[in-house]
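ok so i was messing around last nite and threw this chain in just to see what happens. nothing serious, just curious
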Amino acid sequence: MRRVSLALSAILVLAASGAHAFPWSKDMRRTPAIWPQSPPGGAARIPMDSVVSTQGKHDQKLNLELATKMPNLMPRSTESEARGQATFERYCYPCHGMKGQGDGLVGRLVGAPNLTLELTQGRSDGYIYFYIRHGGILMPSYGYGVQPKDAWDVVNYVRKLQGK
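result:
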């Protein structure tokens, strides 16, 4: 009996003192939040100029005017279109929908453009590439998720959706 009361007293003392909250008993609410794509300022971190890209020369300094004049660097083929479709379905589908008509779940809410209309059909491949990599007014940048060669594949797939 004495052992039971001693054990019960020890449990009550430990519980009252907060000794039950050991440092390793953290749960998701108590851990520090890490948002790698949302540093202060809200945009993804841009690498410093001295950083060497693993994908070759990065196009960080590219502007829309220069991009509009760029030729498509990925020859159009069924393989390129298939790779572009896979990337499109991964990154673009939520806004632009499966057929690029701006009817994705998110696109309906924010007014994503229909990529098959004349306006987009009249844009150059470089223009579409620039918007994929650097974003625009409503579209976020996918520059660090979609590599340059993958972005050109998406351009080829968008051209396929347009019937070009």
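not much to say yet. Residues 39-43 have pLDDT under 50 and may be disordered.
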